[in-house]
Write a structure and sequence with these properties.
The complex is a heterodimer of chains A (about 110) and B (about 110). With about 110 residues, chain A is mostly beta strands. Chain A has strands at about 5, 10-15, 20-25, 30-40, 45-50, 55-60, 60-65, 70-75, 85-95, 100, 105-110. Chain B is an all-beta fold and about 110 residues long. Chain B has no helices and eleven strands. Chain B has strands at about 5, 10-15, 20-25, 30-35, 45-50, 55, 65-70, 75-80, 85-95, 105, 110-114. In chain B, strands 2, 4, 5, 6, 9, 10 and 11 form a seven-stranded mixed sheet that branches. A four-stranded antiparallel sheet of chain B has the order 1-3-8-7, with no helix packed on it. The chains are: A mainly beta (about 110), B mainly beta (about 110). The interface between A and B is medium-sized, with 27 and 29 residues.
Chain lengths: ~110, ~110
């Protein structure tokens, strides 16, 4: 069983709307949690990094939240744009970068 | 601008062929990684290297080997390609382990084994 579960698997929203993607993990002990954006056919690009002591981190219209007690994170996208269409991947590290655990990703489609 | 470059974006190889996937980073990073990405699955670590000539097996090393002769270059080798190795391969690099270090990914290499 994957130690990082993301939901939903896919999501379609209209341009300008907000959305929230979920990430639940069982990785323990926990060091940091990252969100990546991966455009189709491209490599993942970092959006946010949070350590266990951080509750929220923003990057423009992207805001990630973390609840280390319940082992849940969310990525909120505000005022979506067509260019937000991509897969969003949650990555959890127990100790260091060498032992990262990847979620399968949420595929977001933003329609005009 | 940071850069992880994978030399081959698309390859088609025959079963049994030896395949080399090359990755170069220009950020003087100690750590380099090779992952494969398949639909519906998270990225899975094949091998990583934390220094020149050093390597560690990841979750799925079977059928693969790696080479790191220089700090900036990390090669993935499929000794005898098989159809179940058809996948997208991603190279990544980062500074030495630390909770705040960003992982930088290449653009990916799409390998089809026929």
């Amino acid at each position: 069983k994957n130690q990082v579960e993301q939901s939903p698997q896919s999501l379609i929203i209209l341009e300008g709307k907000n959305c929230t993607l979920q990430c639940n993990y069982t990785v323990s002990p926990f060091s940091n949690l990252r969100w990546y954006k991966q455009d189709t056919g491209r490599g993942p690009v970092s959006l946010t990094i949070m350590t266990f002591s951080e509750n929220t981190k923003s990057n423009g219209r992207y805001t990630a939240t973390l609840d280390a007690d319940t082992k849940q994170s969310s990525l909120h996208i505000t005022a979506s744009q067509l260019s937000d269409s991509a897969s969003y991947i949650c990555v959890v590290s127990p100790y260091n970068n060498n032992d990262m655990r990847f979620g399968a990703g949420t595929r977001l489609t933003v329609k005009p | 601008d940071v850069k992880v470059t994978q030399s081959s974006r698309y390859l088609v190889k025959r079963t049994g062929e030896k395949v080399f996937l090359e990755c170069v980073q220009d950020m003087d990073h100690e750590n380099m990684f090779w992952y494969r990405q398949d639909p519906g699955l998270g990225l899975r670590l094949i091998y990583f290297s934390y220094d020149v000539k050093m390597k560690e097996k990841g979750d799925i090393p079977e059928g693969y080997s790696v080479s790191r002769e220089k700090k900036e270059r990390f090669s993935l080798i499929l000794e005898s390609a098989s159809t179940n190795q058809t996948s997208m391969y991603l190279c990544a690099s980062s500074l030495a382990p630390g909770s705040g270090n960003t992982i930088y990914f290449g653009e990916g290499s799409w390998l089809t084994v026929v």
